[in-house]
Write a structure and sequence with these properties.
Layout (H helix, E strand, L loop, with lengths): L1 E3 L6 E2 L2 H15 L1 H10 L8 H8 L4 E3 L24 H25 L7
Antiparallel strand pairs: 1-2, 1-3
Length: 119
């Protein structure tokens, strides 16, 4: 049985994953997740995942998500994608535009300061 995060509605596989989600988001982003934990689970920063899960699931909506049964890791950073959508040509175009914008910024800055190379 899975749970929806009581703060943002993200679906998690089980109570421990929910506890990890809420705590990790609170630690990295603060905001609503941290405020929610401070209100509903005082001392949460000193709790382990199982202990925090006992508290958090009491406030979460249950879902039909299947618990993760195969071994898995959490090595990828949050938001990491398995593949890159941009092609090499797209990357080259973006880099060329960035170079042009940077050159224009430096030229504008030099003109503003009277440091133009043409003077």
């Amino acid at each position: 049985m899975g749970y929806l995060c009581p703060v943002c509605g993200v679906e998690t596989a089980d109570g421990e994953h929910l506890a990890n989600h809420v705590a990790f988001t609170a630690l990295t982003r603060g905001g609503d997740h941290e405020a929610w934990l401070d209100e509903h689970a005082p001392g949460w920063a000193d709790s382990g995942p199982a202990e925090l899960a006992d508290t958090v699931v009491g406030h979460a909506t249950e879902t039909d998500a299947e618990p993760v049964s195969e071994a898995h890791t959490h090595d990828a950073p949050a938001g990491a994608r398995a593949s890159v959508d941009a092609s090499a040509a797209d990357s080259d175009d973006v880099l060329a535009e960035a170079r042009e914008l940077t050159a224009a910024m430096y030229a504008s800055s030099a003109d503003d300061n009277g440091d133009s190379e043409n003077e």
